[in-house]
């Protein structure tokens, strides 16, 4: 098989980013919830997130630069991870835009929230899944920041659960990110 080789140091970081993000697909979307300094809610989508440890359960999200989610998690010591559905794509797209510091993305898209019972972060009322995370570690990697949190509680809408105690993927209906400005949805199961 013939392959083209792209040497990272011979290309711009933007070109490397675009190529990588079009190859590592689909990437699940997380809505990261944090409190701004004034108590308003910051809600930002991240396609660079995942579970990084299972015992204890830990999740991470990565910012290509120190964004509000990172700053708020660092100040408050907590964040929440929500799994948006395909039907929430318009709201996810709006919350992905740059908002002025302190302006609530949750308010902008009409999402109500409550304070998480176990960590100092918000839980979106319209989210079927929410993980409460207490900050564990920050890792600064050149121009990016990795935020890792230990999961303290998982909130799940019982209507998305299957009889075996796991999520029914058709009911969970998670939104994912592909390359360019393309989104994915889970339809087929093998």
List the helices and strands and how they pair.
Elements: H1 13-23, E1 27-28, E2 30-35, E3 41-46, E4 49-54, E5 57-63, H2 68-76, E6 78-82, H3 89-95, H4 105-108, E7 113-115, E8 122-124, E9 129-141, E10 144-156, H5 169-172, E11 175-177, E12 183-185
Antiparallel strand pairs: 1-11, 2-3, 2-6, 4-5, 5-10, 6-9, 7-8, 9-10, 11-12
What does this 3D model show about the protein?
The chain has about 190 residues and is α+β, with helices and mostly antiparallel strands. The chain has one domain (about 10-185): Electron Transport, Fmn-binding Protein, Chain A (Pnp Oxidase, Chain A), CATH 2.30.110. Helix content is about 20%, strand content about 35%. It has helices at about 15-25, 70-75, 90-95, 105-110, 170; strands at about 25-30, 30-35, 40-45, 50-55, 55-65, 80, 115, 120-125, 130-140, 145-155, 175, 185. The longest helix is centred in the N-terminal third of the chain and has 11 residues, at about 15-25.
| Number of β-strand runs | 12
Contiguous runs where pLDDT drops below 50 for at least 5 residues: none
N-to-C CA distance: 27 Å
| Content-based structural category | alpha+beta
Helix content: 10-25%
The H/E string reads HEEEEEHEHHEEEEHEE
Give the CATH architecture. Roll
Q: Report the CATH C-level class.
A: Mainly Beta
Average pLDDT number: 91
Shape: globular
How many structural domains can be distinguished in the coordinates? 1
- Bin the strand percentage: 35-45%
């Amino acid at each position: 098989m013939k392959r083209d080789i792209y040497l990272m140091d011979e290309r711009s970081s933007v070109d490397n980013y675009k190529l990588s993000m079009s190859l590592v697909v689909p990437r699940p979307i997380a809505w990261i919830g944090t409190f701004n300094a004034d108590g308003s809610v910051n809600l930002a989508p991240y396609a660079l997130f995942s579970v990084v440890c299972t015992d204890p359960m830990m999740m991470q999200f990565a910012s290509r630069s120190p964004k509000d989610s990172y700053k708020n998690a660092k100040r408050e010591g907590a964040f929440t991870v929500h799994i948006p559905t395909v039907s929430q794509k318009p709201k996810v797209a709006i919350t992905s835009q740059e908002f002025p510091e302190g302006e609530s993305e949750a308010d902008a898209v009409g999402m109500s929230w409550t304070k998480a019972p176990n960590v100092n972060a918000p839980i979106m009322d319209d989210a079927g899944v929410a993980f409460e995370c207490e900050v564990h570690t920050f890792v600064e990697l050149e121009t990016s920041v990795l935020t890792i949190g230990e999961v303290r509680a998982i909130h799940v809408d019982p209507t998305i659960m299957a009889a075996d105690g796991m999520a029914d993927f058709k009911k969970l209906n998670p939104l994912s990110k592909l390359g360019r400005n393309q989104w994915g949805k889970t339809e087929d199961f093998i």
